[in-house]
Amino acid sequence: MRTILTAGALAAVVATTSPASSQLLIADHAPHLIKVTTDFTGTEVLLFGAIENDGDVVVVISGPESSVTVRRKERFAGLWINRYQMTFPRAPAFYAVAASRPIEELAPANVLERHQIGVRHLRLQPAEVNAPVAEIGLFRAALVRNKQRAGLYSTEVGKVTFLGNRLFRTSIELPANIPVGSYTVNAYFVRGEQVVSAQATPLAISKIGVGADVYEFAHNQAAWYGLLAIAIAVAAGWLASVAFRKG
To answer: Fewer Cβ neighbours under 10 Å: the N or C end of the chain?
Structure first.
């Protein structure tokens, strides 16, 4: 699914950033709602907007936050088992970033960390408050690596392109396995190594159709869903044994 930035949308952005406006940055994205069906193969979000003065633009899509436990295996008695673990209670399920320049050139590390711009600047704090700093670093790196391997954290910074001096646009790909939930699209206007303006807009990703019914049933009626899954598995096994005997 592709979204086209129309001339009307660009005109609206220009109008909202007239000299009478006090906003340094105005941005929007499309679509605002992504419907996940059984044949969903991923899509892209197009963000566009305008700035009043010279500067750079960064766009971040993140969410929803959830608790993630990272485990480390070690060899014990000839077997590989989970010996240590660390839980990150507020890790975004998805994170992607795009910028008009390499983000490390835009602002110092403390500014990037304040706004969580870039994967390395995400505030991933573990629940284990007394854990050694070195251990936190190892488990944090493992969390990011696992998310990147699943295609849920960006491995590269996307490109924000300027159309003239004021208008900008970018598109960020969302994978087929992106979790449903509420996301936030943040746009930052950076000038003089500082974020001078920012705008946040919501993005919803929701299942529809039969997949949505199954998803809601599995989460709201977990016990019944488990019993039904077992019953279906037993029935399938019985039918297979009958067919085998007849063969």
So the answer is: C
State mean pLDDT over 63-84: 78
92, 71 contact by CB (below 8 A): no
SS3 67: strand
CATH number of 7-208: 2.60.40.1930
Find tokens 């950076």 and name the residue. 190
Domain ranges of the chain: 7-208, 209-247
Q: CA 56, CA 193: separation in Å to the nearest integer?
A: 10
Using a cut of 0.85, tell me whether the model's pTM lies above it: no
Cis peptide before 31 (omega within 30 of 0): yes
109-132 mean pLDDT: 93
Quote the tokens at residue 164. Answer: 């003239």
17 and 37 Cβ atoms separated by less than 8 Å: no
Count the Cβ atoms, other than its own, within 10 Å of residue 167.
17
Determine contact, residues 116/123, Cβ cutoff 8 Å: yes
Q: Which residue has the tokens 């919501």?
A: 202
CA torsion sign, 192 to 193 to 197 to 201?
positive
| Cβ pair 17, 188 in contact under 8 A | no
pLDDT in tens, 6-17: 444 444 444 444
DSSP 25-73: EEEEEE-SEEEE-TT---EEEEEEEEESSS-EEEEEEEEEEEEEEEEEE
Query: Comparing C-alpha atoms, which of 69, 108, 109 is closest to residue 89?
Result: 69
Q: Which tens digit of pLDDT belongs to each residue from 188-228?
A: 999 999 999 999 999 999 987 544 444 454 455 455 445 55
Q: Say how many C-beta atoms besides its own lie within 10 A of residue 100's C-beta.
A: 19
